[in-house]
């Protein structure tokens, strides 16, 4: 599966019964007004829906600003 540019890592741990763990690149967040760049999902379908740009927030926290410029 080709990942969108805003997704850093997609870890499918379904075989370990851990689901899908998605890590976003700096500058994106799953939560509004807070840095939340890693989230677990029960199914690949849930993860694919969550990583759509319209479902994410831009993050300008100090950590994201620091790493985006690095």
Mean pLDDT level: 91
Number of helix segments?
A: 2
- What low-confidence regions span 5 or more consecutive residues with pLDDT below 50? none
The biggest beta sheet is recorded as:
3 strands, antiparallel
Number of domains: 1
Can you list the strand order of the major beta sheet?
Answer: 1-2-4
Strand content: 25-35%
Terminal Cα span: 27 Å
Task: Give a count of the beta strands, DSSP E runs of length 2 or more.
Answer: 5
Share of helix among residues?
10-25%
Class computed from helices, strands and strand pairing:
alpha+beta
The global form is elongated
Q: What would you report as the Rg, rounded to the nearest angstrom?
A: 12 Å
Assembly category: single chain
Description of the molecule:
By secondary structure, the protein is α+β, with helices and mostly antiparallel strands. The longest helix is centred in the C-terminal third of the chain and has 7 residues, at 44-50. The protein contains 2 helices and 5 strands; from the N terminus they run ββββαβα. The strands form 2 sheets. It has a 3-stranded antiparallel β-sheet. A two-stranded antiparallel ribbon has the order 3-5. A hairpin with a 5-residue loop joins strand 1 (7-13) and strand 2 (19-24). The chain has one domain (7-68).
